Automatic annotation (TrEMBL), chains A, B:
GO terms for molecular function: ATP binding; L-serine ammonia-lyase activity; magnesium ion binding; pyridoxal phosphate binding; serine racemase activity; threonine racemase activity. It comes from Halovulum marinum. Its cofactor is pyridoxal 5'-phosphate. GO terms for biological process: D-serine biosynthetic process. The keyword Ribosomal protein does not apply. It comes from the Bacteria. This is Pyridoxal-phosphate dependent enzyme. Keywords: Lyase, Pyridoxal phosphate.
Length: 321, 321
């Protein structure tokens, strides 16, 4: 059903998104480290989306959806289900516009995530930690509030918003041979494909995924979406499966999907904290883990890495037992 | 003896230093956080000197000393005694110029510090962990190598170099009401005073110090240098005492010295990691600790904070037991 009516966002949608969200997001800086360059045998540029105010790139897509609503729709606000960065970023964007944001979240979600959503004025409705409870609860909330549903990634407004990151990245670096980003549901990778396929078609897009949640990699090789059965990885931003819209971009413009083990992800995370002096979450370390694991694919290249988020439980760091 | 011949670096020395070191250092970015602004009741700007390649502002003074040597002196290299950021930053600057750097370091210094100095090509001579052994060993090394002694802070070239940070800071922020930096030996504070007393005399300079190593604060109140007897604080970059040159700047241009307890420093450090997503060392968190402790002095102001360094043992974080 969805496929037939699927709207594929365009390069012009990305440009419009950028104009729309610029006053509300940060043009995040690039970090480099000579030491990491030596380790990788490549020139690495890290785009610090963890430096967005709510700590993740997802504020781009969320702000594009929120600020693109007409006045009548905006009054009813937005709604989503998420226990991660999308929930806090959508709440943040809604707060900036002064409209309601309703979030359905499993009652088992970490208290810190709930606190962040509430700090940004989001209304949380808790559900049981199951897909059926989430869907039933979300349907009820949406019916009651009339809020516009903003999917965490399978939404053309969200993908167009995420695509603005690569546009800044190319401007800030004077061009890149490869851009690497983590892949979960595929929102950031899709936005990256959307932008670069027009702006810099010679720049390769490579996705990085945890071995223990490698559904995108297996889908890519099989040529159709394969969902994981309850994947488990420290990179908890990457647990969700591809959907029709993101699959469209992944299947048509991604060059390669590399994977890394849990230990490799943790090592890469610690390396970035130590040498970039930047707090990034485990998901954001997957690209560097794959770069160090597959040096042949990156050697001598100018490689852009999207640091997707920096929301970490500082009391439970994976290299400290 | 020293006082009589003391050369006080000037604003022009700072401008010359900036031209000299610009190709070798980073113009570090500014980080802000709406959440920290709310907590502080002030507009905070964090200048990320921890993003210098060797992870600390001390590369500014070190590079000024190294690149200011004439060819003949440069051939003999530089020498210092330090177990902290000055040792690695001086080694780094010497490596960039391709000249020797000899460092005297207590054999009890952490292995990670020794590794960093060696990674940048520094030659380490170990001494016993006492002042007498350090002085005797350093005298021998300097006699053997003829290397130019670059003191960690009580050196006009070093202070002029550190002063370049505030010049960038004022340009990047369009002005500040107050600049706060940590104080140990006083090199960064002196450079800040040197620059701002000419460039922005209306901008107050406030120093921040650990309660448990409050010799600068007590000196400031007494009107003469008082050295601590074996201070002990988590802010291990701030253990050293003021010297004649830095005392000159502290006594003539610092507005106030505030102190914070160990717990307040640790809380501030964690807050910055969480909300700025920046890895800073304990010393660099002392300014925010004092800002949150003395809100009346900062309320409603535009406050610049110099994040002095980001070299932390990630395996031993002070909030994780």
């Amino acid at each position: 059903m969805r496929d037939a009516e699927m709207y594929i966002p365009t390069y012009d949608d990305m440009l419009a998104a950028h104009e729309r969200i610029k006053p509300h997001i940060r043009r995040t800086p690039i970090r480099t480290s000579c030491h990491l360059n030596e380790l990788a045998g490549a020139e690495l540029f890290f785009k610090c989306e963890n430096f967005q105010e709510p700590g993740a790139f997802k504020v781009r897509g969320a702000a594009n959806a929120v600020f693109g609503l007409d006045e009548e729709k905006a009054r009813k606000g937005v709604a989503t289900h998420s226990s991660g960065n999308h929930a806090s970023c959508l709440s943040y964007a809604a707060m900036l516009r002064g409209i309601p944001c309703n979030v359905v979240m499993p009652r088992t979600a970490p208290q810190a995530k709930k606190d962040t959503v509430r700090r940004y004025g989001g209304n949380i409705t808790e559900c049981a930690p199951s897909t059926s409870s989430r869907e039933a609860t979300f349907a009820r909330v949406q019916a009651e509030t009339g809020g516009d549903f903003v999917h965490p990634y399978n939404d053309p407004r969200v993908i167009a918003g995420q695509g603005t990151c690569s546009r800044e990245f190319m401007e800030q670096t004077d061009g890149l041979d490869i851009v690497v980003a983590p892949i979960g549901g595929g929102g950031m990778i899709s936005g990256t494909c959307l932008t670069l396929s027009t702006l810099a078609p010679e720049t390769k897009v490579i996705a990085a995924e945890p071995e223990q949640a490698d559904d995108a990699c297996r889908s890519f090789r099989a040529g159709h979406i394969i969902a994981d059965d309850a994947p488990k990885t420290i990179a908890d931003g990457l647990l969700v499966p591809l959907k029709d819209l993101t699959w469209h971009f992944v299947s048509s413009h991604v060059s390669e999907i590399f994977t890394a083990s849990e230990d490799e992800i943790i090592d890469a995370m610690k390396l970035t904290w130590k040498h970039l002096r930047v707090v990034m979450e485990p998901s954001s370390a997957v690209p560097l883990a794959t770069i160090l694991k597959h040096p042949g694919a990156f050697r001598g290249k100018r490689v852009g890495v999207i640091v997707t988020g920096g929301n970490v439980d500082l009391d439970k760091l994976p290299w400290i037992q």
